[in-house]
Amino acid sequence: MRSDALDYAEMEDADLADLFRARDSGAVRFIAMRNNQRLFRAAWAVLKDSGEAEDAVQSGYLKAFAAIDSFEGRSKLSTWLTRIVINEALTRRRSARRRAARVGDVDTGGTESDRTDHAHSQPNPEHHVANVQLQETLARALDRLPQIYRIVFILREIEGMTVDETADALDVLPATIKTRFFRARQMLQAQLASVDRTDLDGFLTFAGAACSSFTDRLADLVAAQSAPAGTSLH
């Protein structure tokens, strides 16, 4: 059956993983489009830089492709991918800190402009300005959270992951997730008072042209990674 005739949305994770393993380009694109936003937000929670987060997501996908045989279906495919991307982001942050320490630079976080690169454009200019200001306020508040609380808040409150899914992604106990989420909300109480659910859903949106372009690039990289030596890709 041709890949473009497959209904990926109706497939179980194990079947999608099998197609991913078999280098099915449609499956690669579907998995990416379904997971890009969550993975981007998870990486940003560690790196606080949009460009670095996007690079971490791309590297995470390629590592997942290389390790797809280790996916046993005990967790959701999306949770498995989230764990890989978070680990990749943590590795990059540790490397950045080591480099910064060598040159005496203590600032390893992103700049304010980094945090709004992927926001939706708004048709109403006044609404757009208000939305950007709110996103920047929330981003600054999240910046001030310790990393362990920021990651949990983004995965639980913004991405809507369950306690068990978040615990699986971070490889900690569910009770730890509950405690960190409670403390994160306490620390953000003042900022959250002026933020509703829609505002949270729109935080660090990775969609539209940015998401499509990233998915195209990822599909090409996976195809190149899969091709035998000397094969010409078109």
Principal-axes geometry comes out as globular
Residue share in β-strands: under 5%
**Helix-strand string:** HHHHHHHHHHH
> Overall pLDDT, averaged?
82
Radius of gyration: 19 Å
Low-confidence runs of at least 5 consecutive residues: 108-123, 228-234
The number of E-state strands comes to 0
Q: What's the tally of helices?
A: 11
Mind describing the biggest β-sheet?
Answer: none
Structure description:
The protein is mainly α. The protein contains eleven helices and no strands. The longest helix is centred in the middle third of the chain and has 27 residues, at 77-103. The two termini are 22 Å apart. 32% of the residues are buried.
Concise structural overview:
This protein is an all-alpha fold. The chain contains eleven helices and no strands.
Feature tags:
disordered C terminus; globular; mainly alpha; 11 helices; 234 residues
Describe the SSE topology:
Layout: H1 13-21, H2 25-47, H3 50-66, H4 77-103, H5 125-144, H6 147-158, H7 163-170, H8 174-187, H9 189-192, H10 197-201, H11 208-226
Helix pairs in contact: 1-2, 2-3, 2-4, 2-6, 2-11, 3-4, 3-11, 4-7, 6-8, 7-8
